[in-house]
Amino acid sequence: MNRKFIVVFFVLCHLHSLLLPPPLQCSRSSLFAAAAAAAGGGKWDLLQQNLGIVAMHMQLLHNDKVVIYDRTDFGVSNISLPDGKCRYDPNDKVLAVDCTAHSVEYDVASNSVRPLTVNTDVWCSSGAVTPDGVLVQTGGFNDGDHVVRVFRPCSDNKCDWEEIQGGLIQRRWYSTSQILPDGRQIVVGGRRAYSYEFYPKTAANHVYSLRFLVETNDKNEENNLYPFVFLNVDGNLFIFANNRAILFDYTKNAVVRTYPVMPDGQPRCYPSTGSAVLLPLKNLQSPAISAEVLVCGGAPRGSYINAQNGKFLRALNTCGRMTITDPNPKWAMETMPEARLMGDMVTLPNGNVLIINGAAAGSAGWEFGRSPVLNPVLYRPDNPMGTRFQLQNPTTIPRVYHSTALLIRDGRVLVGGSNAHELYNFTNVLFPTELRLEAFSPAYLDPAMAATRPTILSPASHSQFGYGKRVPVRFKVAGPVNKNLVTVTLVAPSFNTHSFSMNQRLLVIGSGAGGVKYVAKSTYQIDAVTPGSAILAPSGYYMLFVVHQEIPSEGIWVHIP
């Protein structure tokens, strides 16, 4: 980094700070951000100038198409429904008759968009993919809060949303969905919904109370919406809300253990809106598999109320990491290069975590975010503490409230959305409604890495494997191969909205230490072993990658029935 640039930047920052309130002033972290950004990694590409809708919710399907939707009570979108179709909804708060779409299917391969029809309001809903690859979306707002919607992927462009009225027993708005080992999904929480229920329903058609959600509800701010839910390696659920977490046995409606409160005591869930991931699961053949959770960013308590009064508090710049399977678990706190709320955490095929989107001040909610954070951050979980964060090259598009990010099979991250105000407002607002769709290509996709990048030769895409099965994976690498630095990973496609990727999961199923065989010129084979049970990897479609020296191949789809 040019020393002269740093000095000039520091002087300008100092002068600029005299004119700005504290949350927006330059700081040592902004100086570090500017310095690292100039030498950062990754590349940005604009895919769609006009997606037609705000990418508020996204789910990748196993045909490499992404279902995207926002909400129906926004007014007229920028993409029409096909064949003169219109939505007739007397309960809609903006338009009873609307001939525009509020959901689309994005085709990754052709970079094209197809409008879809959704009739009831899907705003702030949740979703998960069933074992056979069908997207099941749950809840929403207004006339959509009890509705379940189903999208079955197809190859003829004729598939569309199917809506099941009364599919949910309780109103689910800002709830979280998690796929379970038996293929059902559990829907947890939501605004004024201190409970959970299952879909599909069984003979026991019940709602179950969850007192933990009452206990974590902040007066006036809540801070426990869109709770972070992960399926633990013992089959129980790790549930994080506000600044607390429990391990929960959903089969007995019982709290198995209570985890320590986040050391700083600050909230991390909506509307404070940090993000969280389950770090890569390794050593799957071990009788004692460990699981770690990472929770990053958010806004300090009181941010939502302060933002309502025009005061925008600085976001949190800390992450908490904890091994949730330890007998005596404790949070280890780390400091990010920049403060961030409303950021998205995406697990990359090599096990690193990309933290992207968000703002440095304010809160989630209409008009409440300030100071967009344009630089993604790469988090390397296997590095020593203090060396794990690396700033990446910035975007030029602010992505604040209602923005999303999603890993796709070629290793890029789709980035869309940002609707910081109610309705489709494109002018006379601080952050206009954002319809552009971008792709962030991490540094591992740089052409300079071509000789290191593996290409999978077998198994064939969409192969099917049972649990605990040996899978020979054959791959090519043009340049020299370090056999000790080859791994095989499985990544579950996640449902992303409001800074949380539901069902996001990466499993390391093959390690090259002593296990990579030379086959022919530039061709090698490694034996992977699929996870041993549906507790480790619920039945469904996964992307399989070969990773060499942290450079992943393009993935292939595999199915665990």
Structure description:
The protein is mainly β and 561 residues long. The protein folds into three domains: 3-38; 43-445, 7 Propeller (Methylamine Dehydrogenase, Chain H); 448-560, Immunoglobulin-like, CATH 2.60.40. Strands 7-6-3-2-37-38 form a six-stranded antiparallel β-sheet, with no helix packed on it. The protein is globular, with a radius of gyration of 23 Å. Mean pLDDT is 93; it is low at 1-39.
User: What is the fourth-level CATH superfamily of the largest domain?
Assistant: Galactose oxidase/kelch, beta-propeller
The order of strands across the largest sheet is: 7-6-3-2-37-38
Label the overall shape. Answer: globular
The unreliable regions are: 1-39
Q: Termini, distance in Å?
A: 51 Å
CATH class of the largest domain: Mainly Beta
Number of strands: 44
Instruction: Report the biggest beta sheet as strand number plus sense, adding barrel if it closes.
Output: 6 strands, antiparallel
Architecture of the largest domain, CATH level 2?
Answer: 7 Propeller
The overall average pLDDT, rounded, is 93
What radius of gyration results from the CA coordinates?
Answer: 23 Å
How many domain units? 3
Number of helices: 4
Q: What portion of residues is helical?
A: under 10%
